[in-house]
Amino acid sequence: MDTEYLVLVNEEDQEQGQAEKWEVHKKGLLHRAFSILVFNSNNEILLHKRANGKYHSGGLWTNTCCGHPRPGEGLIEAANRRLMEEMGFETSLHEVFSFIYKSQVTEELTEYEYDHVFFGRYDNAPVLNIQEASEWKYMSIESVKKDAIQNPDNYSVWFKIILEKIDPYLVKIPYLGVKTISRQFRYKKPQEYQLSSASSSLYNSKICAAVKAKLRQREGSASKPACLDFGAVKYYLASHFGFCLGVANAIDIAYEAIATYPEKKVYMLSELIHNSFVNEDLKR
Predict the structure, then answer these.
(1) What is the pTM assigned to this prediction?
(2) How far apart are CA 110 and CA 104, in angstroms?
(3) Which of 61, 107, 135, 162 shows the smallest number of beta carbons within 10 Å?
């Protein structure tokens, strides 16, 4: 293992000093790390097989790239540096979530990482550093999840954890049967927005929640109306009823723009939805 120093952290990701890489893994010390998942336009993940000569987990399939920031180096700078070193390309990266895991990876070495997960887009072939990776492939999320369950010994421990945690950061897109692609990644964590009492009571009401939940169970099909069964009364709703996920995302984006740029005027070019409460809220 090359001489390299890593950043030690506590469980809040606050720096606690630094230590040599071999010592960190020998003693199982919690340290800062990152994992990169790059998706192509078909929303497939770029995977690579770790070179057999790696100090642990050699020959296993894993996410696009991973590594550690050096002392004094920012996470995004380290992620960009490592992506070029391992995979030979650059792309815009965005941190999406983080987690802590601890696993013994050899008889002598333990990974104990505060792992920051970055997403990015890229459609071309990587240029592998053969000291780091021996093979690569693009694979759909559904396929890699299935294979990781059937062949868990073929994948790195941290990548299997990421696959278990990734769903909340993937947005399901209803294509009404026209396309087979069913997911895309989002860059940011879901956010909460301050709604007025009027809009909140309507948009977050139990009846609207029930309608949205029912319709989202039927994403991908417009052949039949959705049925809301209240026992004595049943309501049949057209599949294009106005709570589609696209509208919900548009509302979220509008509120996010206002929250992100409070000092600026945000102009609406058109009403997002025929909902007077939401539109009046956004106009403010």
Answers:
(1) 0.63
(2) 4
(3) 107
